[in-house]
Amino acid sequence: MALIKNNNLKEVSSLLYNDFEKLLNIEEINHIKNELLNCGALNACMSGSGPTVYGIFSSKNKAKDAYDYFKRSFRDVFLCKPCRIK
Q1: Which of 76, 9, 44 is nearest to 67 (CA)?
Q2: What is the DSSP letter of 72?
Q3: How deeply is 63 buried, as exposed, middle or buried, from its count of CB atoms within 10 A (0-12, 13-18, 19+)?
Q4: Element (H, E) at 80
């Protein structure tokens, strides 16, 4: 929690993982994760048991570029921003 409160996005992103994702080892999920990383994501993971995959970006511009890239191939792509923790 301290990393989040201190806005240490790079460190928080490095700690993200999903054990279920490794168990399933779905080729399309792996491809999307790699594409997110290629678009500049600090990290990318599958959410829960899938099929959602998300990337964490250091800037709104990088996230928007990735959004535009993925929107060309996928119908359901969302650009989200974090909420503040008080």
Answers
A1: 76
A2: T
A3: buried
A4: none
